[in-house]
Write a structure and sequence with these properties.
The protein is mostly beta strands. The chain has strands spanning 11-13, 19-23, 30-31, 34-35, 42-46, 59-66, 72-73, 76-77, 84-89, 94-97, 99-102. The chain has one domain. Helices cover 0% and strands 39% of the residues.
Length: 110
Amino acid sequence: MGTPSITAAAALQCPHGGAVQIVSANARAKAGGAFIASATDTFLIAGCPFVVALVWSPCVQVKWVVADAAVRVNGSASVSRASTGLCLNAAGAPQGPVTVIQTQAPVASR
């Protein structure tokens, strides 16, 4: 079995507790009844309370730096619990790793 996939129904958070909303372009491949997310999908963060001075601002998006090699969705690498994503502020500065709270069933590759 593979690593549990991140789908549009998965629960993710920034390191400060902000909720990640997954906007997937995938409308074909599913795992556990939800569309599988790819590294090129949009991962928006809402409710991040992290504000320090004027230099830093809250996390607003996730950028995946390590995706799955075996599973592809619409030609892009999918993301799973084993993937590495960084939460970024509005200026694109990394704020820390995304936390995967809940995923869907693993996807078996061929």
